[in-house]
Structures are given as C-alpha cells and as structure tokens.
Amino acid sequence: MSEQIRWGILGTGNIARKFAQGLQALEDAALVAVGSRSQESADRFGDQFQVPRRHASYEELVADPEVDVIYIATPHSLHKENMRLCLEAGKAVLCEKPFTINAREAREAIELARTRGLFLMEAMWTRYIPLMVELRRMLADGVIGPVRMITADFGYRARFNPQSRAFDPALGGGGLLDVGVYPISLASMILGTPDRIASLAEIGQTGVDEQAGMVLGYPGGELAVLHTAVRTTTPQEATIMGTDGWIRIHPRWWIPDTMTIHPAGGEPQTIQVPFTGNGYNYEAAEVHRCLRAGLLESEIMPLDETLAIMETMDRIRAQWGMKYPME
C-alpha cells in the first residue's frame, strides 16, 4: 500500500459526514473521492471536507483508480447492492452496519468478496473504541470470572415520519437493524452465537419494530437480556456480569470512555479510557492495518460473525412475523 490509504465514500448523508470527520484524525488516511447520486450533492460534500474527486454516480466512484477502499454509507436496504458494485470493481469495502437487510444478502456479499479475494468488513465501530479493547482484555484475564449474563440497551425517541429511515420498511426501518444490532453485536463479541431466542416487539403503524425486548440464550446457560427502540428513550448502558463481579459501561456504552468494575465483595473501581477523534477513526485504522498486512477480513469483526449476527436478527424478526418489502 502507499504511504496513505486512499478512501472513497459512497453516500453523502449524516453517517458519511461522521466517517469523513473520523478520517481527519488519521495521518495515514486520505479522503480522495466521494460518490453521490447527483453532482450537486457530491460537490457540497466535497466542499465541506476538501475532497478533490467528486463523482455524480456510484459507478464513477468505484471506477476511480485513485481509490483504495470504499466506505458505504447508504441506507440499510442498499448495502448489498452497493457492496456488489464495489467488489465487482475490485475495491476493498468497509460497509456501515447493519451489514445488510438479512442473512441471505450478507452471505451473498461475503461469498463475492471471498471469490474476488477482496477485503470486506462490517463497520461495527464500537468494537475498536479503546475502552472496548480494554474490556476484552479484562474479560480474557478473568477480572470478573466467567461471564454469565449481559444486559444492554440502545433506544432513542425519533420524531415520527413514515418516510424516514427509522420508520420506512422499504429502507429497513425499525429499531432492530438501526440500533438493536449494537447490543446484539456486543453479546456476540462476549458470548458468541445464541442457541435459543425469546423476543417480543411492538410493531408500529408503518409495520416496523418501534421497541423490542430480546433474551438470547447460549449453550453454557449464559443469557443476554437486550432491548432496543426508536420511539422510547433508554439509558444506553451495558452491564457484563460474571461469577466474581460485574462491569457497567456508562454512559452511551456504544461509544464509551468509562466503565466501573464491581468485584464481588470489593470496592468499585471506575476506569476511564479516553479516545481521540470522533470514534470512527478507530475502525478506519483497523482497515488500514488489515490492508497493509494483506488480510481479507478483520479478526476483531470477522465475516463469519457478521453473518451469524444477521442470522440472529433474522430469527428475532421471524418471531415477530416482520418482513421487509424486498424480502
């Protein structure tokens, strides 16, 4: 790879802007191109972030020879199509979460990347935040003993708009894919893939989940108790409970810098692990590491685990009887 990794961003919405801001914290990242569905939108984004190459179509972006890797920042429902476009053009890809609408789409994207021998990763940025790195180390060291239970939530109250990303089923709306994927991914990171699921959801007038509760069970008897919402404000905290104590991550556990360890019979200890940039820089840095090492996926967010998470969310939705129009 060259001294700098050259990024293109596919999409110009809010998440694309956040990722562009994150890249500014990396000395070895260069945002060289943006692709949109209109020249006006590409130029507006390019002006904001000093992007030299501005494409009026996604096809032009993926054909740009100056781009090493593309970050996909479009709505959930477009992820599979956008990944296919990038991979068929020979580009490495970082795709915003949720990876796809369902496991079938995820499997197709992963198979294409592996067939083409190209790097692909789900942009579950929380995994790379320094506090989460420290959490994994502490759990591996047995600070609270074997983990037996997890509780985690991610919910917020969105203004109701049936055409918005949060409520339109054609865009993969609802809490599960938007923010429920965060606690499900946390449980996967710590406990693996569940073998039992019990879940209930409140399905709103547009046909998507407005709030939901999920209990995931694991082969060793471990449990993850999770909830998510787009119409209810939640604490956004996570607690990992072991045989010898528990760890609470607070506040906004999905972009954390503080956790408190409660050892059984001991005094609580609060640990702060600050981070630089806006947090998106850490997943980009992982992409850089993988590309320079010639890796086709990250061992921190491996593709098989991404697929397993999508399969878990499919199983949850099946219990609700909820399907998206494209399914």
TrEMBL record:
<dbReference type="GO" id="GO:0016491">
    <property type="term" value="F:oxidoreductase activity"/>
</dbReference>
<dbReference type="GO" id="GO:0000166">
    <property type="term" value="F:nucleotide binding"/>
</dbReference>
<dbReference type="Pfam" id="PF22725">
    <property type="entry name" value="GFO_IDH_MocA_C3"/>
</dbReference>
<dbReference type="InterPro" id="IPR036291">
    <property type="entry name" value="NAD(P)-bd_dom_sf"/>
</dbReference>
<protein>
    <submittedName>
        <fullName>Gfo/Idh/MocA family oxidoreductase</fullName>
    </submittedName>
</protein>
<feature type="domain" description="Gfo/Idh/MocA-like oxidoreductase N-terminal">
    <location>
        <begin position="5"/>
        <end position="121"/>
    </location>
</feature>
<comment type="similarity">
    <text>Belongs to the Gfo/Idh/MocA family.</text>
</comment>
<dbReference type="Pfam" id="PF01408">
    <property type="entry name" value="GFO_IDH_MocA"/>
</dbReference>
<feature type="domain" description="GFO/IDH/MocA-like oxidoreductase">
    <location>
        <begin position="133"/>
        <end position="248"/>
    </location>
</feature>
<keyword id="KW-0560">Oxidoreductase</keyword>
<dbReference type="InterPro" id="IPR050984">
    <property type="entry name" value="Gfo/Idh/MocA_domain"/>
</dbReference>
<dbReference type="InterPro" id="IPR000683">
    <property type="entry name" value="Gfo/Idh/MocA-like_OxRdtase_N"/>
</dbReference>
<dbReference type="InterPro" id="IPR055170">
    <property type="entry name" value="GFO_IDH_MocA-like_dom"/>
</dbReference>
